Every structure is written in structure tokens, then in C-alpha cells.
Amino acid sequence: MVQAYILIQTEAGRASAVADEISRLPGVIRAEDVTGPYDVIVRAEAGTVDELGRLVVAEVQRVPGITRTLTCPVVHL
């Protein structure tokens, strides 16, 4: 299982709606509004890195109001 944090910037005033919609996507563990340089932080999981990439590109980035994403895979050192 591959897990990652997805840091999301949104259009002004859209963070709550974006987090709510993303939280319903399969593979999303949690989506929360935050303050700082990013507006929403998502914890997601998938079976492989490729599946994680498809989740981000085909599902998350299609949510209206998102302007930029940064995906940070979790590593176990």
C-alpha cells in the first residue's frame, strides 16, 4: 500500500467545498482545510504508485476550485 499527503491550493473561498468533495473520493483517508501556503491537505492511499498517480490526476485534480497540487509520498526509512 502506498500512502501520500496531497497539498492543495484552491481558489479563494473554495477550500471547504474542495475538502468536502475530495473526502468522498475512493482512496482518500482524510481531507482537511488548513491555513498557510496550502488550503487543503489530503491523506490518500492506493495499491501502487501508478494507482496513486491516477487518483491525483484523474480524480483529485478534476475537483472544481483547485489551482495546484503537490503530492508527497510517505516513506518508511
TrEMBL record:
Native source organism of the sequence: Streptomyces hoynatensis
Every Transcription regulator AsnC/Lrp ligand binding domain range: 6-74
Protein name (record): Lrp/AsnC family transcriptional regulator
Signal peptide interval: none
A Pfam cross-reference name: AsnC_trans_reg
InterPro entries (UniProt xref): Dimeric_a/b-barrel (IPR011008), Tscrpt_reg_AsnC/Lrp_C (IPR019887)
